[in-house]
Amino acid sequence: MTDTKQLRIGILGTGAIGGFYGAKLVQAGFEVHFLARSEYAALKSNGLRIEGPEQAVLQLDDIHVWSDVEEMPTCDWVLVAAKTTSNVHLAPLINRMTQSGGKVVLMQNGLAVEDELRTLLRDDIHLLGGLCFICVHRDEPGVVIHQAYGGVNLGYHSGPNTTLEQGRAIAEQGAQLFVQAGLDSQAIGLEKARWQKLVWNVPYNGLSVLLDTTTGALMKHAVSRALIEAIMQEVVQAATACGQDLPDTIVAAMLKSTERMPDYHPSMYHDFALQRPLELDAIYRAPIAAAKVAGVRMPKTEMLLQSLEFLTLP
């Protein structure tokens, strides 16, 4: 087991994902530091509150929160919980937050999100991807609504003089942090895991925006459910063409899992409602491009992208 007193963890992005996982790590006894520029005042005054299922509440009144990266201590692990649309601008902050030889985990959706950021990070930093399986949203600054789930899987991307075996060992170390926080977590192959998450993200994120609806409503009607299943199968076929064979049961399992979920607005729905940039590159353009290189088209996914592009025209 990792000695919680010997590790310092940084959280970059204190919305739903950063707030939830940061709070769980604090509760487990880790020293956690939150960089919260726009939400600093709320977190400093009111702390961090996680409202969970069945009226469970985790209230943290005394947390390490910083508004200026230059004032905060460097960290052994840095969890990046901001949207992929801001990664380029976050690179200087990540470099400043991370100690020499530290580990950075991109807790983000989409494909190949690590590739662009890798070139902007210091060579001594280890870079990982984190795939979060959770229903969560931010209600207001410092208040996170956790509806269901919470598992997070880690995959190693790149780092200094690291073999595949060493990379997996680092991912396993990271997974153990979350296990100690009471969450399901394991080390996985990163590219396959990102394609697996896209099987869910591609249909539900886009359709929730285009149809102004929730996962529950989408699953209720046969016509929308059939469309979701067809898009999922398209993503699975693209993954296979790209050399990432996903389980034969993945589509049925994800449909069944979504049926059990509470009624939920995916993250892209909230981004669109709040007029924030949508993660179209990571969730749509990157897999479409990868599939095209592999000789496969994704026509339904392309239609979703084109429709979302129209909705976000200036």
Short description:
The chain is α/β, with parallel strands linked by helices and 314 residues long. Helix content is 46%, strand content 21%. A nine-stranded mixed sheet has the order 4-3-9-8-7-6-1-2-5.
What does this structure look like?
GO terms for molecular function: 2-dehydropantoate 2-reductase activity; kinase activity. The chain has twelve helices and nine strands. The protein is α/β, with parallel strands linked by helices. It has two domains: 4-188, Rossmann fold; 192-311, N-(1-d-carboxylethyl)-l-norvaline Dehydrogenase, domain 2 (Orthogonal Bundle). It has a nine-stranded mixed sheet with strand order 4-3-9-8-7-6-1-2-5. Strand 8 (126-140) and strand 9 form a beta hairpin. The protein starts with 7 loop residues before the first strand and ends with a helix. The relative contact order is 0.12.
Strand-helix topology:
Blueprint: E1 8-12, H1 16-27, E2 31-35, H2 40-46, E3 48-51, E4 57-60, E5 64-66, E6 75-80, H3 87-97, E7 98-106, H4 113-118, E8 126-140, E9 143-158, H5 164-180, H6 190-210, H7 215-220, H8 222-241, H9 250-260, H10 267-273, H11 280-293, H12 299-311
Parallel strand pairs: 1-2, 1-6, 2-5, 3-9, 6-7, 7-8
Antiparallel strand pairs: 3-4, 8-9
